[in-house]
Every structure is written in C-alpha cells, then in structure tokens.
Write a structure and sequence with these properties.
This protein is of the alpha+beta class. It contains seven helices and five strands. The chain has two domains: 131 residues, Four Helix Bundle (Hemerythrin (Met), subunit A) (Up-down Bundle), CATH 1.20.120; 99 residues, SCP2 sterol-binding domain (Nonspecific Lipid-transfer Protein, Chain A), CATH 3.30.1050.10. It is globular and about 50 Å long. The two termini are 25 Å apart.
Length: 244
C-alpha cells in the first residue's frame, strides 16, 4: 500500500471510531480491553494521534513521551478526539515525502511508517469501539488486512519486546485464505519470533481464515477463524502476543 492509501484509511477509521463511541457511550465497557471503558479507549487513541503528529510535524529525531490526555468526557471528549485525529490526517497528507523523524519499525520512509502505523492503530481501536457499541463490525479491505498482519508478524514481533517464545523450536503458520501469497511462516524459539512471507516447510500449528477475520484475531480482538495442528501455539499467541 502507498502512503496516500494509509492516510485515506486513517481518515475513514477515525470517523468510524468517533461514531462508534457516540453510539456506545463513553461509559460502555470495551470487551477486548479489560478494565477499560470507551472513554479510556478514546483518550488513549487521541493521545497516540497527537504523539504521532508531533514526530512528523516537528521532525523529532528521538523517542518522546506522549502528552497526558485532558480530563474530558462525553461530547467534549469526542470533539477533542476528532480535533486531534483531523490534525494527524492533515499533517500526514501535507508532509514532504522525505520528512525525517524518529520511527520504531522498518519502513520505506518515516512518513510511510507513521501513516501505516496510525491507520492500523486506529482500525484496531475502531473495532474495540464497535464491540463496545454492541453492533456489527464495519468491514476491512483484504489488502489492508493483509498489510496489518504483515506489520504485526514481521514488524512488532521481530522486536526484542515480543514475548511469543517457546523453550524448543516450533513453527506457526498464518494463512489468509482469500489473498494470493498471504502466508507467513513464524519460527518460534527462546528468541523473538522470526516471520517470513512464505509457505516453507511443515508447521506445528496453522492459523487460517479470511484476511479480514484473521487480522483482528491476531490482535486478540476476535477468535481465530480456524486452528489446525497443535492448539497450544494458538493459546500461546493469545497469552503472550499483546503489544506494549
């Protein structure tokens, strides 16, 4: 996907998140985030949006803490979220392609990183808000879902922070059944997982299903569509894969 496509998705997903918040109410519980209510979800996402905006807008070259969200609730909180989301979209859409700033996963450019990361960040939390509202989920495009799976497996869980580890070498396969070549082989060991975009060799466990179902499942927002082989590896993913 290109940066412009990520920004377009971010724009849409932020609007959907705000609408789901209004439908659920700020006091509604968020099933996928124990202990959180929708107000906590919106404060978190609004804080992340402003944090990301500052890197691109101000060209910060090292990590910086986010600002503390204001003590708002209800309609003022939704308005605060919309304002920060809109500023992020405008900043990413108007930034120079060669803007230099800090980023924390490999990417073709810092701008591409931030557009991609914020599009997926906002989509996952939009799913959270919709689950709190108790209605159906807005669909996710196949290409975007595949991209999000790739970011999670090959980006986040390649870091030393990943807790998805096994005492002995095991192999997990992740397969999107509705997208050509959307297959990952994830090699587990006492070290961080090593994921490759291929279908090489035997696997101890396979997680499979349509990309738009597999994507939120890997973010622990829904059950896995299908698990074959050693189900303990699916359980390990559920227990250890939270991104912090």
């Amino acid at each position: 996907m290109h940066t412009a496509a990520y920004v377009e998705t971010l724009d849409r997903e932020g609007a959907l998140l705000a609408a789901a918040t209004e439908a659920a109410g700020c006091d509604a519980e968020v099933p996928a985030c124990p202990g959180w209510r929708v107000r906590d979800l919106l404060r978190h996402t609004g804080r992340v949006h402003r944090w990301a905006t500052a890197f691109v807008a101000d060209g910060h070259t090292g990590p910086r803490p986010g600002v503390r969200p204001p003590d708002l609730d209800g309609a003022p909180l939704v308005a605060w979220f919309r304002e920060g989301h809109g500023r992020l979209v405008e900043t990413l859409a108007g930034a120079a392609p060669d803007v230099r700033c800090w980023h924390f996963l490999p990417a073709p450019s810092p701008l591409d990183f931030w557009a991609r990361r914020q599009a997926h960040e906002t989509t996952v939390h939009r799913l959270d808000a919709e689950s709190a509202a108790g209605g159906g989920y807005t669909g996710i495009g196949v290409d975007f879902a595949v991209d999000g799976i790739d970011e999670l497996l090959c980006g986040f869980h390649a870091r030393q922070k990943s807790a998805v580890r096994t005492a002995e070498s095991r192999t997990l396969r992740v397969r999107a059944t509705d997208a050509p070549d959307a297959v990952w082989t994830v090699r587990l060991s006492p070290q961080p997982p090593v994921a490759e975009r291929n279908d090489a060799g035997d696997a101890d466990c396979e997680l499979s299903g349509p990309a738009a179902e597999l994507y939120p499942a890997l973010w622990n927002r829904r059950p896995f569509p299908e698990v074959t082989g050693d189900t303990s590896l699916a359980a390990l993913w559920r227990e250890r894969s939270a991104v912090t």
